[in-house]
Sequence to fold (504 residues):
Amino acid sequence: MRRRLLVTALVGLAVPAAVTAPYATAASSHAPVLLRDAEAGRQSAVINGKAVQPDTTTEPSVAVNPANPKNVVTGYQMGRVDGGGDASNGYATTFDGGKTWKYGTIPGLTKKNGGDFDRASDAVVAFGPKSTVYFSSLVFNDGSGESGDALRSAIVNSTSHDGGRTWDKPTTVIDDSGGGLNDKNWEVVDNGTGSGHHTGRLYVVWDRVAPMLVSYSDDGGKTFSPPSVVYAGQGIGAIPLVLADGSLGVVFMTDVAPTPALHTNPGDELAEPITGLSKIVMAVSPGAGLIAGGAPLAFTPPATVGAYTGNEPRLQRASPGLPTAAVDPKSGRVYVGWDDSRFRTETNSPVNDPVLTWSDDSGATWSALKNVRTGRSDDWVDRFNSMVGVAPDGTVSLAYRQRQEAVSAADMSPFVDTYYVRSSDGGRTFGAPLRLNRSVRADARFAAFSRAGAMWGDYNQLAVAKDGTVYVVRCESYALHRGEEADFPPAVHHQRTWVAVVKG
Fold:
């Protein structure tokens, strides 16, 4: 039964202009400050099919130009479909550090948007050298009868040569007419220049439930190598990382037991045998940057980073254990995080905290798990959609979304906020959380809806520029007009892509 409410508060009404003044005064010269938070993009795709939810964007990613800290691109789904996918994928680009944005539709993905497929999904962006931007998309047919082959799914790449202003027609990474759904694509560019690196090489990873695959391009995304197997077993949520020596690491989640990990802290609970739980793992392709173009990549068996002991979010779809990961460009340290409940003390708690661990030997051993939460362990606040990045000076940035829950789902707050924390000592300690969404609060009653929950996305993301500026992307849902009726499940959808800019 729907709970019907009338929106009367001023929070989340008409879309405000970007705020350009800091929201907080730094306690010290090193404390982070929110410079601005602005709407970056909204739905621009042509609606295709009755199942599409209009005026929705969701599950965004973001990347910053390694040569220009003010050039940032974000990608996102537009027109979410409850059962999966969207009308098409969109982008938003800034050249002034997030003060103004240009947004639009990636060309050539879905039928009514110039492409061959019924649906798109899983929009991921990555920057390479010379202002080249890569946009990875999952595209597929949905069995609606509009297409001849309901089993067809593909991973495609779109390339921009001008920092995200314009986009080429998509090229194919893999295109299947059966034999398993390609899913959860992610990408990274080798921007290293030292020994062992292949500067400009683009890696794309994805899963087919099993196996997990990788392909790469050495010609700016025009062509891709035949897929290589990262892991023959089941896996999901792969994050590719270019390691300090040019090797390729892939972090992902699996229910199939891999090689146990070694942990540097003998008292850590992760040193105990891990059985019966989903695992966060990492596989490595040693010397990947030295492999000749077109040749296959070989991976070590994945080693366990940690056990996932979190909770499925209630009444929302948002990162059920999928990892976030980043490499310190200064030291080579690998950071991996996810949402977990092991540090909670509520009875039968359904909520999570952001957690973090790191490795200084390319994944051979891992630190004790760090609980990033501040505040009480029994506050019934769910902290989810963890996202991590590392600045050139080694500063660790972590952001997450949070929602006030309650014993009864009927008493949960409909609002979601976004917070940012930072560590200057390699993840050992973090400063006080900084709230990023001061103009709007995500309201589940106007959200995109998918599989019985508000669709915030299986991932959100942050990107760190070479000057330390941090860009945090997420999609915010809210009323556009005073007096709009608020329902759950939502009857009216308004969800748009916002980017917060943090400096400190």
Notes: DSSP finds no helices and 36 strands in the chain. The chain has one domain: 3-503. Residues 1-29, 262-275 have pLDDT under 50 and may be disordered.
